[in-house]
Structure formats: C-alpha cells, structure tokens
Amino acid sequence: MQILQLKQAIVLSLAGLAIAHPGAHEPSSFTEVSKRAFLNNAHRSLSQCAGQLKRNGVLERAASRRAALFETYKKRSLGFRDTEQVVNTSHHSSLQVTPNTPESELFSKDPVCILAPEGEVGPFWVKGELIRHDVSDGEPGVPLFMDGQFIDINTCQPIQDLYWDVWNCNATGVYSGVQSSMNGNGNDSSNLDKTFLRGIQKTDLDGVAGFKTVFPGHYSGRATHVHVIAHVGAQVLANNTLTGGHIPHIGQLFFDQDLISQVEATYPYNTNTVSITENADDHVVQVETEDSNSDPFFEYALLGDSIADGVFGWITLGVNVTASHDTSATWAATLTSSGGVTNDDSSSGAEISICPDGGRVILFSTSLAAFSMVTPNYLLYTASKGAIEQMTRVLAKDLGQRKITVNTIAPGPIGTDA
C-alpha cells in the first residue's frame, strides 16, 4: 500500500469468511479452489489486456486525466521534493521520483486491480441512492476525491455506462440512510432520511467515474474502508435513481495505514473514542490479500501541505461483467421520495426488535456468517470473532434495559467492556 507507487496490484475481495459490520450476514459459496482458479484466469486476462489498452491510448488518457484532476483539486502546488519524501520514507516505494519526473509517469498504471466475482455488501447498503458526483452533503472531515477506471477483463475494453455505487461511514463512524443499534444512535429515526457519503456515478467512454466525498472514519472491529457495488445494464429513472441491470461486483476498498493515521489525528476523527482497527488486523483485508498478490488499496496523493487540504485517490479495477451477484446485494433500506424506508427483511440489526423483552440473543463465533430465529424468544447469530466481540458490546449495552440476555460462544476471551 504505497503512495504513488505504480506497481502491479490485484484486488481479490473474497466474501463470506468475514462480515462488513456487526450484524452483516454474507455467507459465500465461493471456495478456495474457485478463488485460485478465478485469480489465475483473471491475472492472465489482465496481462493480455495491458498491451491492448496501451495501444488504444486508454492508459495514456487515464494518466493525463488524473494529472489534470490532481491539479484541479489541490489547493496549492505540491512540490516533487515533498512527494519524494513521502514516497521514500514511510512507504518504501521503489519509484524514483525527481523534480523532473513527469506527471504522466506518476499517474499512469496498468489495469491490474481485479474486482472479485463476489464480495461483501455489508448490512448498510441503501437502494435508490441518487446519481451525483458530490456526496459530501456538508459532512465535516478530510475531503476525498475518488477516481476509478473500470476495465472488462473479458474484452480488455473500458466499461462504458457502468454505474459505480459507493458508500462509507462519516468521520465518527456512522452511516447515513439506516437506523440500527449497531450504527450510531439506534434511536435516531431521522438518520433514515440522510444521504451523506452515498451516491452513484456512471462511467464515461474510458470507463471512468469519480466522486467528491469525505474520508471515512472508523468503528470497532473494522479497518477504514469504502463499499463498492458495480451495476451494469441499469437504466436511469426520472427521479435520478437506477433500475434494472445486474450486479457483477460487490466489495470494499481500503487506504494506506499511514494515511489513515494522519486523518485520524484531525478533527472530528479524533473525537471518536472507539479503538482503531488497523489494516493488518482487519479480517476482510486479510482474506483479500492472503496467499495472493492482492492489493485492494487506493493509490493517493495529498492535495496540499496539510492533510486537511484533502486527498486524491485513484484505482483501476477489472470487472467480469458477465458475473451476476444480485442475490448477494441485500439492502438495509430504500431511499424514496418521502425519505428512507427500512427493509424489514434485512440483517442490519433491526431484527433485534423482534426479540421480546426477557428473551435471549446468542452470538456464535465462526467463519460463516448467518442469522436465524431459533425459537420465538431466541435469536442466533454466527460471525467472525472480531464482529462477535463488537456485537456483544453493543447488544449487552442496548438490550440490558429490556432484560434481554446476550450470550457469546467463541474461542478464547472476548473483550466486551460490559
């Protein structure tokens, strides 16, 4: 995860062995065997694509575009001496940057990031979000400009008219558009109507789309990340929302830990008292990068001398557009003309309400996430140990007033603070 390092990276977002949030339930049939087969095939496909994309001028246009965007977004000039210092100090970059290094070299990159055939949507996806570039909605925090280019690994062509759906939590770890005991104030119904840090953009002729957003904060049990869904073949309704098409990818993208540390030192990120989960300790990062060349991290550059000036992040993503994972795209709520409406069938934490006072919630640590109603008075969850630990904290606190008992079964001690 190296700032401005233009090395090859393969993104593999394997689903099911971890959950995106406490309460997320995304079991996967994507086995280790199929993971290796997909990775090998996709790597060969992208290796074949690189030459064609260079000949067609796609990579050159991408480099020029990103350089122009960088100049537009940054508030004042970022000298190459500063860039070299950042690149070669904490990130151990192999890129040799000098004052004469052209921007086209800094911002060019082969299309070698692979979006896996199936990833994790998490419990807080909201259907019906607006198509818009600026999703910041006045949220405080470090400005983040994201630039993504999508390549079809089957045809080696940029994917035009793909709709890039993104969402992330705010500076203090709260998602808009949902009401859940595991997302900020679970009693705040007004959060259903909020849309901050959510939106959709359509890719252009070169498969490019971008957003102005706010750098995500953190919450317990997860590293800092951005959620991604890719829609292909969708149509735009009169109300500026999507309908139809299919979903070839669901996943998450991450940031360099050094960058996160800089952001977290600023206000309002530093008001969050929840312990930070670093990339090295995040189970989703581990699954995506274990035994592979996977690197699901944004390349980035700072837009000024201070982190508060903002961050420009970019990534090139390969997609198998023939894949479809619509059934995995479970949603917590839908944004309507009258505001947000909770999906009662989702697993975003709302199902806790069906457990009566005096009932029991059982949390069971396993690699497969699931949820079921065992009896009318008993709810059973299974998820990763990290997620179970966070759920135990939240539920023991929130449900104690209703005399609901929370039991946890997991290997080793569980730190509940309860």
Automatic annotation (TrEMBL):
Signal peptide: 1-20
CDD domains, per the entry: intradiol_dioxygenase_like
Gene3D superfamilies for the chain: Aromatic compound dioxygenase, NAD(P)-binding Rossmann-like Domain
One annotated GO molecular function: ferric iron binding
Keywords: Dioxygenase, NADP, Oxidoreductase, Signal
Ranges of residues in domain Intradiol ring-cleavage dioxygenases: 131-230
PROSITE patterns assigned to the protein according to its UniProt record, in alphabetical order: ADH_SHORT
RNA-binding keyword on record: no
InterPro entries with a match to the protein in the record: Intradiol_dOase_C, Intradiol_dOase_core, NAD(P)-bd_dom_sf, Sc_DH/Rdtase_CS, SDR_fam
GO BP terms, alphabetized: secondary metabolite biosynthetic process
Protein name from the UniProt record: GPI anchored dioxygenase
Species the sequence originates in: Aspergillus phoenicis ATCC 13157
